[in-house]
Write a structure and sequence with these properties.
Number of helices: 9
Radius of gyration: 22 Å
CATH architecture of the largest domain: 2-Layer Sandwich
Number of strands: 7
């Protein structure tokens, strides 16, 4: 039974203090090279192995590293494709995060925090672990955490309490889902909800994932409208072209064609 990975459903069914103690025992034994009472979840175990290979110090006292300068942060915000849609799709999630003593965080594809908002008290607590605008939350910098691990796994991830690799994060819980550009599949960033571990709720990951899919859907609709606008301009021009011609947008999507299938 010790080799059977623990899962979130079991953690949810357990008393909060009991679940915290079990995760702490799993983490401490795993990091010491001993056999834990239960195996960590596969996504967490795989991340811990990456942390060992990268040489991340689990006892480090500071996370997030040096934050970006204000002009660089503003440039990343302005040029991010997420800037087009993030306000419209996260309003409800922000309200939920505020009410449940958590915060909403949006990062870019490198794990740099672009935006964050939510409960004021938790925002101040987040400053203490440098979960701040411009901070780096990739696994290479901050260890196992929902933002960095979702980027590494390219999948939605929940990291709870002592599942974090770096000790100073073990009082936190976070759930994150990556957002991909529907035009070319490029990873754009991550939508995350984080807060004190006492605020753990099993539905948060599903909610964050739904918002990430909504962002992708909105990007897709905006792109299709842009292709239609290009088609309305290009089609009359191509009608006057002899031979074969095609008009594509900057992502290579076909808007209009003549002389070929």
């Amino acid at each position: 039974m010790k080799d059977t990975p623990i899962d979130l459903s079991r953690l949810t069914a357990m008393d909060s203090a009991q679940a915290t103690r079990l995760l702490r025992r799993i983490r401490e034994a795993s990091l010491a090279g001993d056999r834990p009472p239960m195996a960590p979840r596969p996504v967490i175990g795989a991340s811990w192995q990456r942390m060992r290979r990268l040489g991340v110090d689990p006892d480090r006292q500071r996370t997030g590293e040096v934050v970006l300068a204000a002009d660089e942060l503003e440039h990343r915000r302005r040029t991010s494709a997420l800037a087009e849609v993030i306000r419209g799709v996260t309003d409800g999630l922000t309200a939920m995060a505020d009410a449940s003593l958590q915060i909403l965080v949006v990062s870019d594809a490198q794990g740099r925090v672009l935006w964050r908002e939510g409960n004021a008290r938790v925002l101040r607590q987040a400053d203490g672990i440098v979960l701040a605008a411009g901070a780096a939350w990739s696994e290479q910098v901050t260890g196992t955490n929902a933002i960095g691990t979702a980027l590494a796994a390219r999948a939605p991830v929940r990291v709870h309490a002592a599942e974090h690799f770096v000790h100073v994060l073990t009082d936190w819980t976070c759930a994150a889902a990556p957002v991909h550009d529907p035009r070319d599949g490029r990873l754009l960033g991550v939508i995350d909800v984080s807060g004190p571990a006492t605020g753990f709720h099993p539905t948060t990951l599903a909610l964050v994932t739904s918002v990430a899919r909504l962002a992708e859907s909105e990007l897709r609709e905006r792109h299709l409208r842009a292709v239609e606008r290009l088609r309305s301009v290009a089609a009359p021009i191509l009608c006057r072209v002899r031979g074969r011609a095609v008009a594509v947008d900057t992502h290579g999507w076909t808007a209009a064609v003549t002389g070929m299938a």
